[in-house]
Amino acid sequence: MVLTVFWKEIVGILKALVKLDFKAEEGKLGILIAVGSIPTALIGFFFHDILESFFYNVLVVGIALMVNGVFLFFSERRGDGRRVDYLDSLLIGVAQGTAIIPGISRSGLTIATALLRKVEKRSAFTYSFLLSVPAVIGATILESSRVLASNELVMGGLDIVAMLFGVVVSMIVGYISLKLLQKLVMQEKFHLFAYYCWIAGIAIILYHVFL
Question: Structural domain of residue 66, as residue ranges?
Fold first, then answer.
């Protein structure tokens, strides 16, 4: 999905990196993505088990949704004309790593972090999703290695068909969702997601307290 929407940017970055052209915008962006991937990788490596354990704690999910909503709300209209720099990359990378916590939106928190740093909206949106590419690839490799090592992967013909169908549907829905999110960010309506987070967070917390 991300590869489909940002294929031009990704191809440009790869070409610049192959040529070791770090003066071009694409080359600079490639370095910034590498810098942002460092805190994400470190958080994932050292704190993965702790953060993943939060999936079994409903109260943590509710609180995380509330916190996520705060970031989304206050990031609105903070975007300026500035491009992403190295400090931005590190902070956005930390935000991406923190998104392992259930209830925290990866795209929401990374874009909000960039906007709070007064990064221009389009740059914030683009960098957020380009930064997800190495993280997704790394996580996929690690998970695949774990499954293969444990011999858990036993699939029949119907399983493969169902998996392929799910992949196609998720790609279509993901593409539409990504374009809609881009439109909302550019139209300064990003904060609308904050209300959803707050409503869902309050509902989950009340459910945990009273039931």
Answer: 2-210
Angle between helices 192-210 and 58-75 (to 10 degrees): 160
pTM for this model (two decimals) = 0.86
Specify the 3-state DSSP secondary structure of 119.
Answer: strand
Find out whether 114 and 84 touch, Cβ atoms under 8 Å.
Answer: yes
- 10 Å CB burial of residue 89 (0-12, 13-18, 19+) is buried
All residues at 6 or more sequence positions from 52 whose CB lies less than 8 Å from its CB, including other chains:
100
- Contact yes or no for 73/191 (Cβ under 8 A): yes
Structure tokens at 53: 């354990």
* pLDDT, tens digit, 9 for 90 and up, residues 56-73: 889 999 999 999 999 999
Number of domains in the chain: 1
Query: Whole-angstrom Cα distance, residue 40 to residue 66?
Result: 22
Q: For residue 90, which of 133, 49, 31, 6 has the smallest C-alpha distance?
A: 31
Per-residue pLDDT, 142 = 67
Q: Could you tell me how many residues make up the chain?
A: 211
